[in-house]
Amino acid sequence: MSQTDTAETTANRTDGEGVSTTAGETVEETRPEWTCHETDGETKLAVGDLDVHYGDDHALKGVSMDIPEESVTALIGPSGCGKSTFLRCLNRMNDRIRAASVDGTVEFDGENIYQDGVDLVELRKRVGMVFQSPNPFPKSIRENVSYGPRKHGDIETGLLARLTGRAEPDREEDLVKRSLERAALWEEVRDRLDDNALGLSGGQQQRLCIARCLAVDPEVILMDEPASALDPIATAKIEDLIEDLAEDYTVVVVTHSMQQAARVSDQTAVFLTGGELVEYDDTQKIFEDPESQRVEDYISGKFG
Amino acid sequence: MSRATRTALVRDDRTAYEAAAGAAVGISGIVFVVGLATLLGVVGIDDPVAGLELSVLFGVVLLALGVTVVGFGMASRLGYVDAAPQPSAGIVAAAAFTGIWFAVGAAVSGAAGIGTAGRLAVGAVLGGSAFAVTAFPREDVGSTVPVGAVAGLCGLSLVVGVIGPGWEQALVGYNATLFGDTVVPVVVLFTSLVTGWSAAKAYGGFGARGRNVGAYVLIYLVVGSILTVLVGLVAFVTVRGLPGLFGGFSVGGASLVSWPFLTNGAGLTADVAGVFPALLGTVWLVIGAVLFAVPTGVGAAVFLSEYAEQGRFTGAVEVATNGLWSTPSIVFGLFGAAFLIPRFGNQKSLIAGMLTLGFMLLPLVLITSREAILAVPDEYRDASAALGVSKWKTIRSVVLPAAIPGIATGVILGVGRIAGETAPILLTMGGGVLPGKSAAPDVLGGFQLSGSPPFVSNPALLEATSALPYQLYALITAGLSGNIENPQEFAWGLALTLLLVVLVFYAVGIATRYYFRRKLHQ
Ligand SMILES: Nc1ncnc2c1ncn2[C@@H]1O[C@H](COP(=O)(O)OP(=O)(O)OP(=O)(O)O)[C@@H](O)[C@H]1O
Ligand SMILES: [Mg+2]
Predict the structure, then answer these.
(1) Taking CB atoms and a 6 Å cutoff, what residues make up the pocket around ligand 1?
(2) CA distance B209 to B215
(3) DSSP code for A254
């Protein structure tokens, strides 16, 4: 798909929404300097000129952004603009999609994770992910939470470990409890840790997946709409958790809620239809005085 | 919008019409069941019932049903009852009655001595009229009149005795004769099925609701008869096998339970001949085959669905395994005899049988395991990968546990097949017709350690061993004779034992599947 084609498509859609931008203006409106946000802290993830194709479908177009350490970065944008795709690039989960091909670089602590010889298992231990739709294993709640540490050998629970006295049931209990507490789920499930996780409600499953990710103790946590199925109270708890996590972790969170982005994030990236990163800056700047007209329209609800 | 086709939302006042239709459905059902009983030989068609021969009584009832069904149709057509018939009974019903009346016409004219061309002509005329009567009038007429005509004709021929107990007809060109005690039940079953269907439609007031009720009745009667036949088959073997199985059985005494048929051999020293060697042979055979086929089959399935690139290669393997599964067992037997036997001491042996049956079981385990693994949602794999867990650990701790119920299903089906196989055993395992107790394979006690390779040996695995289906076969080919008291009873007892062994293996497999399913879902 050529550049003009995309521009036209975008223009048609905006026309449909009643905003009178023309094809010419749309192309002009994307300026590189709107996305080169100077970060305060150390850069944890540096994305350079990232392009993603699904077959012939160009889903992300030349995205570059620096994600600072120990902060919350929000990704917002209309449905289908490539937020999940971008997130999946950061821990190379896109490798698991047959049709996807990724070009560009993502530097994690200065090392390009798209070079040869990267250990994906190790990378994903450090860059954890909470998926858009909850996907607990068909196992007990306890096993779901302790799954990662068990498989990494951090906690030994097998028969052999028990026989040789290396099993640490207390440490496992402790880890399960702490992770569930942080994910605001402990109170609801403390009495039924051995029940199957598939018996939980959608919102509970969502928090269980957050707990499962936290139990592995990654450095970066990628969250794809972590509060989409939650009531206001649980959402508030998850938002508190995200702010909390930013003390030690780097959090990247996709959200459809402007208020949520404004409340929890330090910087916000706005993607718009067609897979381009239009503006990336401090959250306050994005919400109060965005450079791009389209971003302003999107945020004020006129578009997308 | 037209609301002409709407029927009342609540139909709680049961009219006399509905009651009559319900009764007609019930009577059709009873006739169907009794017809089934006569077909299975539980009741004779010439048994007197209420002063009439059963076949005549069948005729009277069918005749009455036919008249009643036509009455329902007419009552609806003339507007006496509140029904919602559609404009036509539909093309499926029309085609069915065309076929039925074509057959009736051809059969009747054939019996009257008309030649082939004439028979076809009569059949075509009757079939065509049946089509017209079914398809063109309104549904209430179209789905009752042809039925009434069938029931009337069949009922009348039974009453008059055109077909009945003494009836027989030589089939020209085939070396066979049809007898009344087969034809009458078949006619009765078929006719009661169509009257039941038609009465059920009337009960539902025709239209969508009527078709629904009609389909229910058809399905219930057909399923019921299939189940009856299956249960009848098992009951038949059980009734005949019980005397043999429990010959000399006693509870109490020195050994608490004494069950000589299962614990004795058939040698001269045994006072009650038993099947112990063959029973043990079958059990070890199945265990050996499963131990061989399950790890290899599941391993291959894991490779094919998780590691191999899906494409031409996996497609070819799939076609090949499907082909192997449908390969006749005697071919596997020949392979075992020509390839395995020379490698295991050049004589028929237990291990050759185990491996041959293992090869037979392998394709099914492979196919079902592959399906089960592919059916595990990708979300589980993604979730595990995103937690930084390697592929092999993911397979072992998420994919395989989720696939176990499916794998167990495959093993259950396969065990049911191989436990009853005769041909491969005949060629690879042998064993005597009536082995004595000493011929029973002592697999567990047979292991011996030695100082030279292969360090472990087990003579029990290398000896010719009998198995239940093979012993049954051998007994029958030997003319059911031998040094036992009652070979007939012995053979039926043997058959029942085989049935029970297969059922026990099934039960184990189903329990496994149930256990893992529960674990996955609650
Ligand atoms: N597995 C896939 N195969 C092919 N195309 C895909 C795949 N995943 C996403 N896409 C395409 O990539 C584009 C971006 O999708 P993506 O899921 O990243 O959107 P999103 O911004 O997360 O949307 P939402 O807010 O609805 O979750 C869409 O046009 C989508 O059709
Ligand atoms: Mg998404």
Answers:
(1) A 54, 57, 59, 77, 79-85, 97, 99, 132
(2) 10
(3) E
3 state DSSP class of B86 = coil
Of ligand 1's listed atoms, the one at least distance from the Cα of A271 is 21
Provide the 3-class DSSP secondary structure of residue B137. coil
> Considering the entire predicted model, what is its pTM?
0.78
Taking only the tens place, the pLDDT of each residue in B425-441 is 889 888 777 777 777 77
Å from CA of A86 to ligand 2 middle:
9
| Residue ranges of chain B whose CB lies within 8 Å of a chain A CB | 377, 379-390, 393, 397-398, 401-402, 519-522
- Segment A219-275, tens digit of pLDDT: 999 999 988 888 888 888 889 889 988 988 999 999 998 889 999 999 999 998 888
- State yes or no: pLDDT of A216 exceeds 50: yes
Closest to B429 in 3D by CA, of B355, B362, B363, B326: B355
Give the residue from chain A lying closest to B384, CA to CA: A148
Rounded Cα distance, B373 and B370, in Å: 5
pLDDT tens by residue, B38-51: 888 888 888 888 77
Q: What amino acid is encoded at A105 in this protein?
A: T
Cα separation, B500 vs A211, whole angstroms:
50
Q: In angstroms, what is the span from residue A226 Cα to ligand 2's centroid? A: 11
Q: Report the DSSP pairing between strands A250-254 and A220-224.
A: parallel
| φ/ψ bin of B307: left (φ > 0), alpha (ψ from -120 to 50), beta (otherwise) | alpha
Q: Which segment of B190-194, B371-375, B509-513 scores lowest on mean pLDDT?
A: B509-513
